[in-house]
Each structure stands twice: as C-alpha cells, then as structure tokens.
Amino acid sequence: MLWKQTDYSGWGRVHKAHGEVARPERGAHLARLMQDRPAPAYGMLRSYNDSPLNDGGRAIDMTRMDKILAFDPETGVLEVEAGVQLGDLIRLFAPRGWIPAVVPGTGFPTVGGAIAHDIHGKNHHVLGSFGQHVLSVTLIQPGGKRVTASPQRGKALFRATMGGIGQTGVIVSARLQLIPTPGPSMRVKSTRVESFDEFLALLDASTFRYNVGWIDGTAKGGGLGRGILEEAELTDGPRAGRALPPITVPVDLPSFALSGPTVKAFNAAYWRKVPSQGNVHVMPIAQHVFPLDKLHDWNRLYGKRGFHQFQCVVPVAEAGALKEMVAKIARSGLASPLAVIKRMGDGRAGMLSFPMEGYTLAIDFPAREKAEMLIAELEAMTVEATGRLYLGKDALASGATIKAMYPEWEDWAKEAARADPDGVLITDMVRRLQLRDAT
C-alpha cells in the first residue's frame, strides 16, 4: 500500500495536518495496513476541528471504501462500507422507499464519520442519534484484528465506538436500519419567528418529525433571537421539482466579505424572505435535509484563516442561559449568517455522544482573536448551564472542560485503551483534550 505525504485539514480550516496518508480500496488492504502500520482513519474531513487530524503522523483515508454490501428491501436493513456518503444513501434508496434515519445538514459525511461522532439531525427529538440506528459495526483494530460489535454483543465496545471519535479501531463497515419514506419529497412549512421566546415555544409545540430554526445572530432588543422555523414531513406528493444546481465558492474571500454591517444586512433580508403568514413548499428530501450543500466549498467564505463553529446543548430548564448566549453574540457584532437552533430529545448511542434533552445552538465565527475570546465566554456559560460542547465542532476547549461535560469519558478511555493499547489511533483532538490520559 502506497503512502503519500499529504496536507489536509478539518472543515473549519483552523487546524491543519501534514503526514503520510494511505487510501485503501478493499478490506484486505486495510487489514494489512492495520497489521503493519496502524493509523487513525478519516473520511470526507467534514468535522469542523482537529478530530480527524494526525499532524506529523500517518492517517488512513477511507473514502475509496464506499461499497454497498447488502440491502434487504423488505426490512430496510442496509450494510455498507464506512466510506459511503450519507447523501448517496438518500439518492440511491429514497426511490426505493427507504432513507437513513438520521442525517446532518450536509450529505458529504461518510457512514464512518457519522458513527464516530454519533451525529444528530433535524429529527433528533423523534428518532435520536445516528448510532441508535446502527445494528452492528465492524472494526479493524491495531494488529489487524477484525471485531464486530452491536448493542447485544460487545455492548461496551459498541457504545465506545458510537461517538467515540475513531479510538476503538478503524470502522470498516456497518449494518444500518433505514426508515421508510412514502416518497422522495418533503413538505416544508416555513414560519417567520419574531423573538427567541417565541422560537422556543414553537419548537416545544411542534408535532413535525423534522424541525430546525435559523436565528438572526445580529438582532437585538425585542427582535433578539428572531429567525425562521422550518418544520417538515416526508411525503409521497405532489412530486417535487428538481433542485437548482449548487453554487461553488471558487476562492477564499477577503475578511471584509463577512463584516458586521454586511452580515447584519444579509440576515435582515434573509429573515424577510418568509412572508409574515408563512409558506409551505414541497421539495426533494436532500434539498431540505442538506441545506449546506447548496453552496459547495462554503468554508472558503471565511477566508484563509478559516472559522470556528460553536455548538452547545443545554437542558430545557436552562433555556434562559441559551438566551443570554444569543444576546452576548448579538452584542459582539461577530455573528455570521449561519446560526441554527434545534430542539433535542434524550437519544444518544455512545459514551461520548453529544445529545441531551434540551436545545442546541450552533453558530459560525471567522477565526479571529475576538471570536475566540467570545467562544471562551460561551463555553463558560455552557458549563454553568450544565450543558455540553460537540466534539465534532469544538476546536478550542480544554480537556478539563470536556471531561466535566462527559461523565462517561473514563469508561470510554478504558475501552479505547483495550482496543488500542499502544495509542496508535490517537489524533490531534484526543491529544489536545488529553481524553485518553489516565486521571
């Protein structure tokens, strides 16, 4: 297997890595790599931080291991290699009446990445996290040992793998339980929301299986937290029209492109795109669940220095703390156009899984010193509210902060040590947070 010197980075482009990378195409190739020169794996590099990076060391690019291994059209049970992209699963199986139970806001992440971060989507309050729909996962551990774990067999290993950021072995394949869909479309109801309090009330009262809110992070005063709520259901018709082709950002934009006045004007116009009485549209499933894919390479909007995304979840009882965060962001003048709020249930599959019952807020900031200072304040507010930061997004927190948010981290670290006693799967983020260090 040929190793090549490669430069790569997370989606936020703040953390970067250089090292030897191999791209196996078959399970036998991967097994030989893990026997002779074991290394951590990554997929499409859609984690925003240093989660998939191993600067100065070796890494395994899993994107060529993207085969469909088996599918039962009667039960919706699908077996795939880890490099299959989630968007391709919707494209291939929605016409056959099945889709993945949980997807994030982009279709580019791989199944392996979805497992490693136990991702959540717009329907978390109904169907929980991705890992809760994984029937079994097959790993190759350092030394070449092939192991399969499920909620019934090898439960501790399974729970350490779901959301386990790749530390229990390289994910080779997984068996997934898809959910039925009556058709290839979604009926989406859009509502213009006037304030933060109204937003939470609407999220709490929603009876839709999919809901997500966009917040104007620049609005203050009586308009604090205003935005657009989108609620949706799968539908069999009328058949949606074809989505417009995506636009690509061809170059890194200069810093002034997302200046405070520009973002404020854009957000105000975007908020008004939905009429006061709301509207309803039918659109292809992917068009609604993957809004980030309308603009390819959108991370270049933030320029060469990249961006941070702050994402937290706080318990329902701490909604006031989330409102204070939104107010602090608005006062800072640092908000970008991308700010999302969702209602979450309690579904989580792993020891380091992010979700908890409550509300999650995600917002991007250009990578600047002032933004990092603001994020530190937001992290402290999250700690005070007994919330969590998302390991798929965080690029700045300390190990002590993260460990306090994830009470099962020691159990997870023990399972990771059993699977990888020599620490050859440790990545930059695991080192930064000292997640595998003994207490």
UniProtKB/TrEMBL annotation:
Keyword check for Transport: no
Pfam families linked to this entry: ALO, FAD_binding_4
Database matches in Gene3D superfamilies: 3.30.465.10
Keywords noted in UniProt: FAD, Flavoprotein, Oxidoreductase
Regions that span the bilayer: none
InterPro entries (UniProt xref): ALO_C, FAD-bd_PCMH, FAD-bd_PCMH-like_sf, FAD-bd_PCMH_sub2, FAD_lactone_oxidase-like, Oxid_FAD_bind_N
Domain FAD-binding PCMH-type: 13-181
Record carries keyword Oxidoreductase: yes
Protein name: Oxidoreductase
Organism expressing this protein natively: Sinisalibacter aestuarii
